[in-house]
Queue: 4 jobs
Job 1
Amino acid sequence: MGKRKHIIFYSGGIGSYFTARRVVEKEGKENVILLFTDTKIEDEDLYRFLEETSKKLGAKLIKLADGRTPWEVAKDVKFLPNSRIAQCSHLLKQKMSDKWIKDNFKPEECVLYLGIDWTEDHRRAAPKKNYLPYEVKFPMCDRPFLTKPQMLDILEKEDGIKRPALYRLGFAHNNCGGFCFRAGLGHFENLLKKNRKLYLWHEGKEQEMRDYLGKDVTILRRTRNGQRINLTLKSLREELDKGDQLSWDEQIDVGGCGCFLD
C-alpha cells in the first residue's frame, strides 16, 4: 500500500487553512487533499480564498455539493434548525464528505483532519468517536498554539493572502455567507449591522418556514426571567432598530457552526 492520504475538512475558515498548512509541512503536499462541501449560500469571497490557499499549499482541492441550500434542507425535512439541531450540517456537510471518503478510501488508507484549535480541545472526543474506524487528528490543538487573530496576521503578512471578507466584517467564521442556524444573538446583531439586505433575506426565509410549518418556531431563543422564549429574526431586528441593546451575555453569544463536530 502506498502512503496514506491526509484529508482536511476544508471549510474556508482560517482554522482549516492552518490545519492544512501544518499537515502539508509534515506529510507533503502530494499526500494532502482539501475537501470542501458547498452549502450554496457561501460568501463569494470564500471561493477566492479556497483557490488562493489551495494554490499556496499545492494540495488537491475537491469540491462537493448536495445542491440544496440550508433553507431548502429545512423545508425538505420540515424542521426549522436552531443552535441545538441543524440537519443542514448533516446533509450538506457530513453526509456528502462521509460518502466521498468511504467511496475512495478504506480506514487504513487515510487520516482525517479537523480545524478546531487548542481553545476547543473539549470538542475532540465526539468526532474521534463518530468517525471510527477512520482516524481523526487536530493539528491546531498542538504547539505552537495560535489564536485566530494570529493566524489571520500570518495569513496576510507571511503567506501574502488577503483574509476572507467575513473575517474583515467581524464574523467569527467564514461559512454560509455570514449566516448560521447555530449562531447566537451577537452574531445576528453583527449581520444586521454589516449586511442588512442579507439579514432581511434570512428574516423572510424564517417567516416562510414559520408559515409553512404553522408553528411558533424560531432560530433564536433567549432567556428572560429564568425562562427560555422564542425570538424571531424580525423581532430582534425591530428591537435593534429602536435602539435597544442586547445584554452583555447576548452580545458575546456568537454561537458556532461546528458542522463536522457532532
Job 2
Amino acid sequence: MSARLEALASRVIAQFGERVKPVASTCGELTYELAAADLLSIAKTLRDDPQFKFDQLVDLTGVDLLKYGQDQWVTKQSTRTGFSRGVIRRNQNDQDPSWRFVVIYHLLSTVNNVRLRLRVCSERGQIGQGLPQIDSVVSVWASANWFEREAFDLFGIMFKGHPDLRRILTDYGFIGHPFRKDFPLIGNVEVRYDETQKRVIYQPVSIEPRELVPRVIRDDNRYDAALTSGKVNHG
C-alpha cells in the first residue's frame, strides 16, 4: 500500500473507529465495511470533511452472495479428459452467510487524488426475509441516481429515499431481477408479436433449462509449435 493510502487509512480509523471494518484487498484497494444504519452519516462525513473530500461517487453496484464460496469457477487445472470445474472455498468468517445482498461504493477525492471503497450489507436482506433495503445516497452524491436504479433493476435492492426508483435497463413488464444468482439463465418469460392480436405478448419461456459446463482453456506449447511448423493434424 502506498504512503498516501496508509495516511488515508489512518484518518479513516481515527474518524470512525469501530464503525468501519477494514476489508482485505488483493489489488491494493482501500476498502471498509460498515453497517447500513451508518451509511448516510459516514457518507456525508467522507464528502464534507476537509481531510477526506470524497466529492465523487464513481460507481455503485450490488452483489448477490447466494451460495458464496460454494459455486464452481472456471479454472485452468483440468482432469485427463480436458474438462473441469474448479471450486474456490472461502473462509467461513469472511462473510456472514445469512446476508445475501451487498452494495459497493467507489469513491474518488479529486482534491486529494485518492480512492476509497465502501461495502454495506443491505437491511432485511437476509435469505428468505423479504426485499433487501438500503438508504439512497442520492442526497450525498447525485451520480448515485442511475447507479441505484440499475442495482434495483438487476438485483432487486430497494433504495429508501430515492427520488425515482424504477427500472432502467429491462422492460417495464420484466419479471424478476436478472443479476440475482437464482434467476434462470433462460429467463422467466419470452416476448413475441402475435399476428392475431396485433400486439406484442409475453408468455412463459419455452426453452428447456440446462446447466452450462465451461471448458478449461489450457496453454500447451506443443500445439503452438505444431501450428508454427504447419504439422497440425486436422483429422
Job 3
Amino acid sequence: MTAETETPVAATGSCCSPAGACHSGEASDVQVGAVTTVYKVAGMTCGHCEGAVSGEISEIEGVASVKAVAATGEVTVISAAPLDEEAVRAAVDEAGYELVGLA
C-alpha cells in the first residue's frame, strides 16, 4: 500500500447511479482525479495541534481537505494533484511541528 493514491471517483450514491444525480436534478459532489496522501507528523498531542496543522496545510493551493489525527501522528490530505512535499513541510513547520515524511 502506498501513502499516495489517486481516487478515480469519490461520490455518494443511490440505487440507480453512483452519484445519485438521476433523482436530484443537481450536480453531484464528485471529485474526479483527487489524490489522497497520508503524511506522518511529529509533535501533535491534542485537538489544538490537529487544528494548527490542518489549518496551515489547508492553505496550500489545490488542497480540498485535511484530517490530522494527533493519536497516530497521521495527516490525510486530499488534493486536486500531488502536492510538493516541501510546501507541505513548510506548512507543518509554520504550525510548529515536524513533517517526518509519508506514512
Job 4
Amino acid sequence: MRQITDIHELRQLQMGILDHVHQFCEAHHITYFLSSGSLLGAVRHGGYIPWDDDIDIYMQRSEYNRLLSAFPNDGHYRLLDPAKEPHYFYTFAKVVDTRTLMVEDETEGYEVGVYMDIFPIDYVPDDPEERLRLFKRKKLLYKIRRCKISRSNPLHSRLAYWFYKMLPVSVGFLTRRIHQLIVCEQPSRYACNMTEAGPHIKHCFPAEDMASTVDIKFEDRIYKTMAGYRDYLACTYGDYMTLPPEDQRVTHKFKAYWK
C-alpha cells in the first residue's frame, strides 16, 4: 500500500465522494446541507479551512433515511449504514472510497476508506430543561457505548471505563436505545446533530434555518447548504469569521493509504 501524505491528494478523494453524493441527491431530490467545518470553510475561506482535512454534510432525519434506503453500493463508493454494518464504530453514516484505507487513532482496530461524514439532524425539545435532560441521557449512553466498543480507554478514569465496559448490555442494545431517545418525529423549533460527534447543547440551532437550500461555493464547485447558514454558523461557532488561536487549529489524527 502507498500512504497518502499529500493533503491535496486526500482532499481530491474527499471531493470525489462529495461530488458523487451531491449528484445522487440531486437526481433523487434528496436534500442535504454542507455543514460544520466544511460550511465554515466555504463561508470564511471559499473551501477547506486551511488546517482541515474532512468533509461533513447534514441531512434532516427523513432525508437521511431516504439516502440510506436508496444509495447504491456499486462502483468504488460505498455507504456505511450503522444499522447494517457489523461492528460499526459510529452511529452515523459515512460514504467511503473503497480503493483506500484509513486508520484513525481514536478507532483503534476499526478501519474504513477515505470518507465523508453524513450526519442526521433531529428535532430537540423547545423546553430548555427537557432538552438538558435529553442531552444528559444521550451523553451517558454514548459514553457507555464508546467504552463497550473501544479497545483503548476513551475516559479519564480507568475505573469508570471498566465499569461501563462490563455492564451487561450489548452495543446493539445501546445503539437502538440511543436511536429511540434522539429521533423525534414531532417537529419543534430547534434541531441538532444528536450523534456522538454532535455539538454541545448550547449549539442547537433554529429548525427554520433548514427550511430551504441555497447554493454555496466550496473550492471550485457549487454545492447545497441551508438557507439560514449564517444563523447556524453563529449558533455553532459564535464569531465564526474570526480565526481561532493557533493552538486550536487542529487536524484529525489518521493515516490514509491507497490499497
